[in-house]
Queue: 4 jobs
Job 1
Amino acid sequence: MTTATSRDVPSEMRRGLTGSAKRVDRAIGRAFGRRRVLFDLRNAMNVAVLQPMFSALQGDHRVHVAFACEDPGRVAAAVRQEAAADVLAHAEVIWQRWDLYVSADPWTRPRLRRCLQSANFFHGVAGNSNLDDPSALQTGFDWFDRVGFINAERMDTYLKRGIVSAEAAVLVGFPKADRLALGGYSASQIKRSLGLDTHRMTALYAPGWSPAGSLHVAGEQIVASLRNSGFNVIVKLHPMSFHPAPQYSDGIDWRSRMDAVQEPGRVVHVIESDSSPVMAASDVLVTDHSTVGFEYCLLDRPIVLFDVPDLVRMARVNPDQVTRLRGVARLVCRNDEVGFVARDELAQSNRLSAARRQLAARMFYGAGTATARALAVLYNLLELPRPEVQARPGATRRCSS
């Protein structure tokens, strides 16, 4: 007498057994515990993107919220600050039971064996890494039960290409930007917390992470040009610039490099996960190509772009998004001119106002109300009625030097 192996069982039966096991898992969870939600965080930026959602769920006694990362040390400090929680390694969560898995990045999903539902929310709109149309990439978006889109244009592209199904696609907006769009930050309070003169003009330097970007070409020189032109300077690097892999940081310790240019009362390097507070505290933005550039349009303040010719190719940026951002900004090619150009743009701050407001509306669906739509998606997947009172967008965030 031989024993049947899994290979002897027809695929249809295996799927049925898997479905039965999931139904039993769900029944046990519903009967004996809270809904279990796992937020998977690839980097500190993901913490900022998902914070409005996990903070609201943490306030719901019916829900248990946990956090995971392929390298927990990469996000541990940000999670402790924003969620007062520890971070699990992917190996620790594979066989645990989860009612819902949530991510802001499709690349590093763990192979969860006992997960009922899943949702992905986009972490940006800049069009990097071919994410505006990833038809040729193995992104795995078809694995998610829901995919929350920031704007209608990208959602329409994914639907037309068959990357996501009509059932999975949901137009949400960008919860991370809600508080910024609603004017929920005090610029003077943030400046004081950073030790900056509240009466001096403040420039934010927030470059993208690519080794082909402005940080690698002229980062310190750009900061010096702004400082020498009379600005307070806030330096906010993309979290991936701190990643040790050469494709992200080129092996450079950018934290130490930017810490070294700090000057009490004038130049500060911030490493918090969310850029929103320092955007609100600044009068002008300097970047190359990044989602921060598009988000800054929500404030309708001047933007200066440092031109790095090879960035579009190296970072696989959608050329249409490059054109759009350049249409609302002033382009500068020399690092010693950045400060002068920034001052000039402030002197005529209304010059591109209409274009900035139009681009903000195009890129961020329903800015200021996205968190409510995102939570509606999550509660629907959890099969729970939404609580009557929700946390204000970003209400738990802090900003410190």
Note: The first helix runs from residue 11 to 32.
Job 2
Amino acid sequence: MKSKIDPPAKQNALQLKDLPPEIWEIIETMFAGFDGAIIIDEQGFIMVFTEQYEKISGFKKKDVIGQHVTKFFPDTRLLEVLQTGRPIIADVWGKEDNIHIVSRIPIIAGGKIIGAAGFNVFRYMKEAKDLSRKYINLNTELAYYKEQVRNLAQAKYSLDAIIGRSAALQEAKARVKKIAQTTSPVLIYGETGTGKELFAHAIHTESHRWDHPFIRMNCAAIPENLLESELFGYEEGAFTGAKRGGKPGRFEMSHRGSLFLDEISELPYAMQPKLLRILQEKEFERVGGTITKTADVRIISSTNVDLRREAGQIRFREDLFYRLNVFQIIVPALRDRMEDIPLLCEHFIEKHNQENGTEIEGVTSTAMKLMMSYSWPGNVRELETLMERACVDSEGSFIDVNNLTRFGGQNYRRQVADHRLFNRPTTLKEGRENGEKQAIQEALAQAGGNKKKAAELLGIHRTSLYNKLHEYGMLDTEE
């Protein structure tokens, strides 16, 4: 590489040394903030050499100023910057323990290179490594939080999470599999507590959109004046309290995925045309915005009221109803699939044993008869709540009638009191069975679950105890 730059073509062109003193003062003040800086003119002669650079290089400022840069730094890349006009950013310079990260930039005036400056980004490689490590850690942290957000926006339940073998439930699940392969809107009907949200999750999970966002919004839970901004987002300054930079709405968040609108019947009438527009045109604007955005979103909605009737009474737009009701899934009420109650009880008992540390093994046959005869106005949600209370209330291994009714609601207790099973006289056979069950439960409790000890307390052989446990449905299925 040349050790000297050819003189400029025009002798009267501006040179670095011609800069006025006030400019030089600014330059020196600016570069003094770095851990080391050097400036050369257009011919490669050193014009600025900071005190920090004296310490780094070992050369004295008085010996260096006015000398050609190659005299002290024969391998310098500052001359390369002079020739090309291109900066060299964050370059490694030095040897062994004296390695630095240096940037070099051209100084240009009137479209001509009149010098070059070099300055330390880091005094030592360790600082660069520390910054790199911090950068990597931040990236790792960011990736973690992105993953957490992604997980929050994913469906949690599959079809396997919907418990039951009844024909009514199997029919609804088969419909989910078929409908999930389309991109059309789905309207889920079902009474409160039947598990409509589980079906919405399952539709998304079974679809080709499964690895994209699944965003949920309860139309009844958001104040009417915030619904539009929640659905479509808003721009900065759209209203008092709007976040800086604006905020995306549920449609933007669920792009390429699914948006579940729970309790769609509660959507205010004034908002319904805006939802209809995005369903038809796949376009929307943020609140306070003028840019039209697009969103590829599958709409899954749910309701526990008859939307057709609501449309007839002008409480729900008829055109929106037909757009949402392309496919329909009806989730059966629990009273219409009573044969699923034993499976559901087993599932909820296992769940609450894990959550509450209880060790309930099952439900007595009498308690199961009672549950099989109850109307379940609160559906599966009511059953789960009942099982949770009963698991905590039971002092034995099995849930009995008392555990079901002790903390039950007024309607449940009234239905139990009115039920023919408890209104008619108890037969001798039922009395004997109930007495034996109670005696067995008490013996097992005293024996800490040890069946051999419990048989001794009851004065019967262990085989006889096992027979009784089997007869009354009190035997663990794994034994």
Note: The chain is about 45% helix and 15% strand.
Job 3
Amino acid sequence: MVAFLQYGTRFLRPIQEIGERYGVLQSSVVSAERVFALLDTPAPGPREGKRVDSSGAARIQFEHVWFAYKPGQWVLRDVSFEIGPGEMLAVVGHTGAGKTTLTNLLLRFYEPQRGVIRLGGVDIRALSLPELRRQFGVVLQDAYMREGSVLDNIRFGGDGGGNGQALRSAGRVGLAALAEHLPEGLETRVQERGDNLSSGQKQIIAFARALAQDPRYLILDEATSSIDPETESRIQSSLDLLFRDRTSLVIAHRLSTVLNADRILVMHKGEPAESGNHKELIARKGLYWRLYQVQFGLVSEECE
């Protein structure tokens, strides 16, 4: 009986493994179809388009922009605002207010159903994607790290400026000092997605990467939300350096990171609700004032 049970187990095990492999195969086929469908999707816009004056940062304009990921479910409703040359605009609001969607449209990952977005007075749909995107430096909440050295990750996505440019960028954001705690300094090998680095180290590398590209425009999307306040204060000088003489769009949930912005745009349910600097919005006692009060645990007398 014992021998029969053991033989039965050995007989059924290959059948179970075949069933498991078949399930994995089906999942792989579906995933491959999605990947190839994405690769076969034609890039939007012209290959050769108009060029924007590269002598300095230009004005960014959103004019009556409407956008929906699904038909009829508007994420943005008649959004109009502009960012002046060299100005830092902070966008705040509740989750789902449409903040990140603004950057997706600006970089043309999606096209608005209505309205127009202009860069230096030129409709961005008239620009080729390489011409448009090479002008932007982007730092996201989850900084992407690939396998290679720290210097490789700083150069990643750039125009091949070499180690010299990457080293200068690392020194300017304070990464060289931080790298002293790494086993091999800036030549330390980075694991896939930066698993051997802390959140603060990955964010500083992302700032150095953006600075190495010397972009005319800067987009920060929750760039400091996943790091602790001590690390945030350490990299504040890096942020000041990035913002200098650049037109910047900063998206943040933590209002402490946008108090010094030239102008703050408050989004609510896909529409601009308020606009002004920190003092003006606090004095207005509207939506921004309530967000500020909740985050800092202040009573109304303190907010005044």
Note: The chain has two domains: 1-41, 60-303.
Job 4
Amino acid sequence: MKKLLLAALLAGLTTAASAQTSLYGLVDGYLGHTTGKTSATQVSAGGMTTSYIGIRSSEELGGGIKATAVLEQFLRADTAQLGRFNGDATWARNAYVGLSSRVGEVQVGRVTTPYFISTIAFNALGDSSVFSPMFTQRFGVNNFNLAAGGTDSGWNNSVLVKTNAGPLALTGVYSAGVQDDATGTKQAGKSVGAMFFRGPIGLTATWQDVEQGAGKPSMTSTIVGGSYDVKVAKLFAQYNRVENSDAVTKQDKGYSVGASMPLGKGNTVMASYARFDHDFVGNKSAETASWALGLTHAMSKRTDLYAAVRDTSYTNDGVNRTNTAWADTRVTGVGIRHRF
């Protein structure tokens, strides 16, 4: 009996050693003020990074192969609500199961798109939905193309294949249902992205296409970008072009430049500028210009404070000018982030 108990205990320890499950996440809250067509002071969430909580489980299968399952959920700490907005999917950040090895990875489920990764990796303010000029243009509430599924950070019903070849990483995604809403609307999508990092140099090129669905427009997007670390600062630049088939927008094209500079003692200054030209049906057009400055102070490896301002101005021939979202705006805020 003692031998049987010992064998069972050893088997349990072996299983625990090969399988690991972790809980992790980030919570971001800030105090901000917005001026524009309307002005308001708010205590809100996700100023510099959208808050989320995640569960990851992995198991070593032998031969260098690992199985992984990931479930990640956005949240709003200011109102104690789940999701980025009311009606957001439960595990909208990521929800996939996959296999990985030294040479690459396959994920099946809801996955993050290469287009999203290229956008945030090659601009100084990253994935800030409040302060990053490039992010707010492509994924924020001021985006002309919110009706198209290609603007979300992740795609449903997808298979992602990622390979690594030294400094070069290639990612391909096929989605059988970019959008899968309550009405059953589905749009197929495909995307290919490349990222290259060697020494101080970073480069990216990403293309994605979302097919037209029932009542949903198509969207074809391209990004090329680069970064260069000159030690005293890291420089960023990217060019973005989007073609649409919706009833309003025909094409968006623009660029972003910026830099982040470490100042010592955990301080980093960030600056970014983005400009977009928008072509509409009926030979109408608009221009968007946005700049931002930010400062982060690391209190530890997991906690930092930040302050930032973003100013956005629009010029157009009357298209959407009555919409509050298209008024010239300035957003300022101070906040805190904690990772766990």
Note: The first strand starts at residue 19 and ends at 35.
